[in-house]
User: Which sequence fits this backbone?
């Protein structure tokens, strides 16, 4: 059984060009995204401590994301790029969250599936970065991240399947894939992961 769906649309070629032309900005955003991804996994632990079946994987995911942040920060240090004092609001994530159901169970499902879609988009974009960077060391790093993000996309769907009917999960996931493509298409291209 496939644990996630493909993304609804490929990233535009203009996106990778923007990233390559503004790579330091991309690194700052990437570091912010890794911090937020770790916090998201831990927020599930905090909000749903009774969901014992998923807590070990959430903790593992949070630790992996924090390790990715550590690795991105090391690259930033080498390049003399400081961390921003605050993490700016991500218009992509904001738009996704606005489309969540408000009921407790429905929102739990939506948040898991949004996490899956975001990780799957991250995987697609990290692969683009890996394939287009001239620096072999950085390319190798982004290739590693690509496989890790793809795994995280699967993990969040697997978590949802612990609590919700398979048909419901995949129907809602398909809806989220469409929503994500629509949101991505509506946003300006910038040197950011999303």
Assistant:
């Amino acid at each position: 059984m496939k644990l996630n769906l493909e993304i609804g649309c490929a990233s535009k070629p203009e996106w990778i060009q923007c990233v390559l032309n503004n790579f330091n900005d991309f690194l700052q955003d990437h570091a912010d995204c890794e911090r937020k991804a770790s916090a998201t996994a831990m927020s599930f632990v905090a909000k749903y401590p009774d969901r014992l079946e998923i807590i070990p994987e959430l903790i593992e995911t949070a630790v992996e994301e924090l390790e990715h942040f550590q690795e991105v920060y090391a690259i930033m240090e080498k390049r003399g790029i400081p961390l921003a004092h605050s993490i700016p609001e991500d218009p992509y994530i904001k738009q996704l969250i606005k489309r969540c159901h408000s009921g407790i169970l429905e929102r739990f499902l939506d948040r898991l599936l949004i996490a899956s879609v975001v990780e799957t988009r991250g995987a697609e974009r990290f692969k683009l970065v890996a394939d287009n960077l001239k620096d072999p060391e950085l390319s190798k790093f982004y290739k590693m991240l690509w496989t890790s993000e793809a795994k995280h996309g699967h993990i969040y769907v697997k978590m949802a399947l612990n609590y919700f009917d398979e048909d419901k999960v995949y129907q809602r996931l398909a809806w989220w894939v469409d929503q994500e493509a629509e949101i991505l298409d509506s946003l300006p291209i910038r040197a950011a992961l999303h």
